């Protein structure tokens, strides 16, 4: 199968128009500070810049990408810098919903409703505890106006509170949906952000690296 | 770096830290902003306590608490945006996805594991075989005292579990992954190797399910105090607050790149437990993490305790290579 049909999931491609008369050397010199981040290796040869990143800093402007190629194309209409970037984070986010749907299926399989023995045990436990719930409120709480606890019925129809509830697949479905939304947001956002970063850097804006963000040290040590 | 002496220890020889409240920056901005970021924490604590104390039984239940918990986290994410402590801790898309992945594990697969082999199993066994009449005296206590005792007992256990993780290599291995985080954000508390998340999830919460209102109040205490450990918001926490409770300042010091500073501020909510045992240091740090702030990938976070443990075992017990005599 040709991966090009699906690799847009984690590959970001684009181009940035260049000012007339800029050579590839000029372009790569301008964007060079972007690749002076921790964990980043880059090299330039034959009008092409290739880079790889490992354990990139969280505030690295290109932290979402793990490798990529940038090159300059000279056309009649004008020169452009093209790029092809690869992001494992985007792929991970794309696949995460499948993982959480898997967790939902596992929950359904493990907590089938036809477990009479477990239900009987739970009902027995609740019955024992229901007796204790009949305790009256402390006089201080009565004075302050806290509501009286519900009178226990027979312990059968009382819903279990907190962590003693059975795990439900709902949480897994919620996270699957959340990652699907995050993927769409990330795929669009990171595409836009990296294009804007290249355009601004090529226009001469100063590059703020991850280490530049740290407050100048003023403390006692 | 020379470091600064705090009691018997010298803090900050390996990484920059700020020690002492007087050296910590204050909230910048107008009087409204100053007011909000000074009183937000106490207002949220007392507001939520009052809500759970007075809410009718039909509202004071676990599902409400889950909803409020999620809403509160979203609000705090907004505060991170409005008033960040450090620009170098800004939440990015990648950081958000990573953090939420671990939050998701906690709500799904770890919940199942805990239900089968974790503290929930032990608690159920105790509840079935223990004479609950012996706990009647506890039920007669005022609700807020019940809630405080539940959260204090839990935090006391967490303190020793956490301190154990920093002092015993087999426990440090899974916990070390959490110390590779390089910035604090609201969901960073969930980031770590699943083995550690399982260990730290061991608790007594399920034991108090028969006290629904006290359990909710205890949950509210935890939510409105310990949640600020991992947050990128600058607060002017009142003096009494930072004396009693763990803050971002305390916890950032615990996550700093200075080894000696990491061996402090172990508690979850009640920093006075650290004060009791001499492990509290008041201060903060911006540069966080291990190996000079190397950010670990999710893949490495999953395998690190095992690969590192195997490496250590081989070093200690592996066959010695014969060194040829000269």
UniProtKB/TrEMBL annotation, chain B:
Residues of the Fatty acid hydroxylase domain: 149-279
What are the transmembrane regions? 35-55, 62-82, 137-156, 214-233
The principal location of this protein is membrane
- For this UniProt record, give its keywords in alphabetical order, as a comma-separated list: Membrane, Transmembrane, Transmembrane helix
Q: Which residues form the signal peptide?
A: none
The record's InterPro entries line, in alphabetical order, gives:
Fatty_acid_hydroxylase, Sterol_Desaturase_Related
Compartments in which it is found: Membrane
The UniProt entry, under PANTHER family, shows: STEROL DESATURASE (PTHR11863)
Protein name per the record = Sterol desaturase/sphingolipid hydroxylase (Fatty acid hydroxylase superfamily)
């Amino acid at each position: 199968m040709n991966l090009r049909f699906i690799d847009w999931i984690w590959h970001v491609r684009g181009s940035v128009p260049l000012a007339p008369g800029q050579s590839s050397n000029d372009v790569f010199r301008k964007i060079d500070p972007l690749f002076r981040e921790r964990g980043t290796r880059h090299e330039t040869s034959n009008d092409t810049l290739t880079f790889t990143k490992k354990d990139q800093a969280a505030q690295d402007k290109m932290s979402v990408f793990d490798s990529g190629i940038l090159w300059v194309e000279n056309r009649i209409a004008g020169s452009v810098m093209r790029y092809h970037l690869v992001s494992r984070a985007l792929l991970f986010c794309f696949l995460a919903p499948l993982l959480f749907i898997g967790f939902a299926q596992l929950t359904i399989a493990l907590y089938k409703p036809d477990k009479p023995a477990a239900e009987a045990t739970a009902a027995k436990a609740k019955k024992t505890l229901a007796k204790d719930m009949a305790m009256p409120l402390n006089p201080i709480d009565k004075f302050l106006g806290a509501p009286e606890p519900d009178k226990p019925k027979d312990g059968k129809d009382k819903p279990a509170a907190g962590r003693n509830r059975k795990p439900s697949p709902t949480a897994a479905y919620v996270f699957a949906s959340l990652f699907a939304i995050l993927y769409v947001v990330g795929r669009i956002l990171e595409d836009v952000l990296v294009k804007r970063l290249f355009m601004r850097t090529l226009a001469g804006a100063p590059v703020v690296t991850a280490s530049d963000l740290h407050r100048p040290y003023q403390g006692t040590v | 770096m020379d470091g600064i002496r705090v009691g018997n220890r010298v803090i900050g020889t390996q990484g920059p830290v700020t020690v002492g409240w007087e050296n910590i920056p204050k909230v910048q901005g107008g009087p409204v902003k100053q007011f909000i970021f000074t009183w937000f924490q106490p207002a949220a604590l007392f507001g939520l306590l009052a809500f759970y104390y007075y809410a009718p039984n039909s509202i004071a239940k676990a599902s409400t608490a889950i909803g409020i918990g999620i809403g509160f986290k979203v609000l705090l994410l907004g505060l991170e945006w409005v008033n960040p402590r450090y620009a170098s801790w800004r939440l990015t898309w990648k950081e958000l996805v990573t953090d939420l992945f671990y939050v998701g594990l906690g709500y799904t697969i770890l919940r199942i594991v805990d239900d089968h082999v974790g503290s929930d199993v032990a608690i159920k066994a105790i509840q079935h075989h223990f004479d609950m009449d012996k706990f009647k005296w506890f039920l007669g206590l005022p609700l807020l005292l019940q809630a405080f005792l539940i959260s204090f007992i839990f935090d006391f256990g967490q303190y020793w579990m956490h301190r154990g993780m920093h002092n015993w290599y087999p426990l440090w291995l899974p916990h070390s992954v959490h110390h590779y985080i390089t910035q604090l954000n609201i969901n960073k508390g969930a980031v770590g190797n699943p083995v550690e998340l399982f260990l730290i999830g061991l608790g007594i919460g399920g034991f108090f399910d028969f006290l629904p209102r006290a359990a909710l109040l205890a949950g509210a205490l935890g939510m409105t105090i310990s949640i600020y450990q991992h947050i990128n918001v600058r607060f002017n926490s009142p003096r009494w607050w930072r004396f009693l409770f763990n803050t971002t300042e305390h916890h950032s010091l615990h996550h700093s790149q200075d080894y000696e500073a990491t061996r402090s501020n172990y508690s979850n909510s009640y920093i006075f437990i650290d004060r009791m045992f001499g492990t509290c240091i008041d201060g903060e740090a911006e540069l966080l993490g291990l190996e000079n702030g190397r950010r670990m990938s999710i893949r490495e976070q999953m395998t690190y305790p095992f690969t590192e443990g195997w490496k250590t075992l081989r070093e200690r017990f592996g066959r010695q290579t014969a060194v040829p005599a000269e």
